[in-house]
Amino acid sequence: MMTQQLSAYLRTYRWPLVALSLLSIQALPLWAKGIGLALLIVLVWQEWHIGVVLVPITAPLYLIPVAITERAGVPLHEIVLLVTVACAGIGFIRQRNWPWQWHPFDAWIVLLLASATISMIWVVPEGRGEALRVWRWLIVEPVIWLLCARHALMSGAMSQWLQRGMIVAGVVVAGLGVLQFVGFDLVPLLGDKRAFSENVVATGNIRRVASVYGHANNLGLFLERVWPLAVIGVLGMRPQLNVRWLAVGVLALGILFSFSRGAWMGVALATGLLVVWHLQQRRAIPFVRLVGALLIAGSALVFVAVLTRGDSIGSIDARWLLWQESVTWLWQRPWGLGLGQFYFYHNPEYGRSIMDARLIGTSEQYASHPHNVVLDTWLNLGVVGVIVLGGMMWHVVRRSLVYGSSHLTIRAAGVMLVAAFVHGMVDQFWFVTDLMYCFWVAVALILYTKVDMPDTGRL
């Protein structure tokens, strides 16, 4: 009887208890971390689907690892993933039920794993540690999460949990950035951030905030991906004071204060696609007029973005130089540089650089990626990786078009991928921890959401 009452209590208050356990693990002393970890294990053991939701929403804290000793730390999302896999695995063994079955999309996953593993062959000696870290953090662990998410999504209506979890993560990250902008920085309370830049940086005539990240652009990249999941829930509703609109408002402020022009354009594209989709279904506005209005609005946004950060317009020139350098490397090494190796070829300190002299002494001297999704994927995974990325995008976006008309969550996930990919042509797309998990969240929502279950998109 006591056990049943405790179980019912844990189910009723699971989300406040989850928040308490995560906060204890992340920010409190070691003894409190142990209590928080024990509580997390109990909650995930009772319902391991909770862990599936928690992994991607804790990924933004990858630069603020959980301190185990003065020097050693483990990212929170890795701890949650380990607990989730352990609890789920033990449960499957006890039930003698191995849930994995071959799915057509699995061929692309196998090719991704193979290309990433093969690329480890030609990494430079000083880059082996980074290659192993990238292989573990950005390739293997997210794929393991995807397999868990697939089983969880296909066995029930967990898509709303995942959608809500991503929105909550975005609101928290954006809220921390907004507080930084007005002079209250709470991020140091979460632990020591392993980044060289400040949380608030003055650039020209603006102040940019980074929230939990090392750079304001990373804040914009993450919030840009959360944005469609939140906006889809308020389309067709009047602006009003409720949780949905409050979430959209906080996300909008976070994106604004990142002053990432790429994120602004990505958000504008995502919003435009969602609005077009919504109005076309309602036949509220003729398509030609609607597209014309969006083009005018987009042009105005580009103009405002350039004026707002006019002093840093040189970033466009820097990207062009990085693209030229990357193309030169690919001409010399068409199989790529290896997983996570761009920095060790680009930075002159390692003696291999063909970097343009105009980048020396700027922040781009230490760039770890070429600011282009195709070049970045080719340099990391070779031409096979580019084919795999293209195949996966084609597979999931096409399915989002088929089912998105009737299933709002699938629609939002498809728009997320398209907007992120367009932005990725001039910035990062997926070779960062939180962005990689966002990619797989979108894939999971599109491929494995049960389309025969009711979906209103309302949160």
What's the structural blueprint in terms of helices and strands?
Elements lengths: L1 H11 L1 H14 L2 H17 L2 H10 L7 E2 L5 E2 L1 H20 L10 H13 L9 H27 L4 H23 L18 E4 L2 E4 L6 H16 L11 H16 L2 H22 L4 H22 L5 H19 L9 H5 L26 H31 L4 H17 L8 H16 L11
Antiparallel strand pairs: 1-2, 3-4
Helix pairs in contact: 2-3, 3-5, 4-5, 4-7, 4-8, 4-17, 5-7, 6-7, 6-15, 7-17, 8-9, 8-10, 9-10, 9-11, 9-16, 11-12, 11-16, 13-15, 15-16, 16-17
3D architecture notes:
By secondary structure, this protein is mainly alpha-helical. The chain has a domain at about 1-100. About 65% of the residues lie in helices and about 5% in strands. It has 17 helices and four strands. The strands form two sheets. It has a two-stranded antiparallel sheet with strand order 1-2. Strands 3-4 form a two-stranded antiparallel ribbon. α8 (about 160-180) packs across α10 (about 245-260). The radius of gyration is 22 Å and the shape is globular. The model is unreliable at about 310-315 (pLDDT under 50).
